[in-house]
């Protein structure tokens, strides 16, 4: 867990309270380098929202530039995502009102 990233995530306005919760959860799972790889279901369970909602919020965070999603393929054809958080220089506000 990166406390520094969590503090930064809490200060950023993303325009939606559930989106902010997903961002904070990603920061909670992230290393000090901003990398994490929780499953959509893990985030959904922790945030008490649907898996589809998590997917939509992560897509919006990627569009805003706060998160980069890298899909990696396993040897057996399965895939998982690595999330890279880019919270430096994000400023105070990126969206509408929370």
UniProtKB/TrEMBL annotation:
> What InterPro entries does the database record attribute to this sequence?
WH-like_DNA-bd_sf, WH_DNA-bd_sf
Q: Where are the transmembrane segments?
A: none
Q: What positions belong to coiled-coil segments?
A: none
**Gene3D superfamilies per the UniProt record, alphabetical:** Winged helix-like DNA-binding domain superfamily/Winged helix DNA-binding domain (1.10.10.10)
Q: Name one Pfam family in it.
A: HTH_36
Q: What is this protein called?
A: Helix-turn-helix domain-containing protein
Give the source species. Answer: Salmonella enterica subsp. enterica serovar Napoli
Q: What is the lineage of its organism?
A: Bacteria, Pseudomonadati, Pseudomonadota, Gammaproteobacteria, Enterobacterales
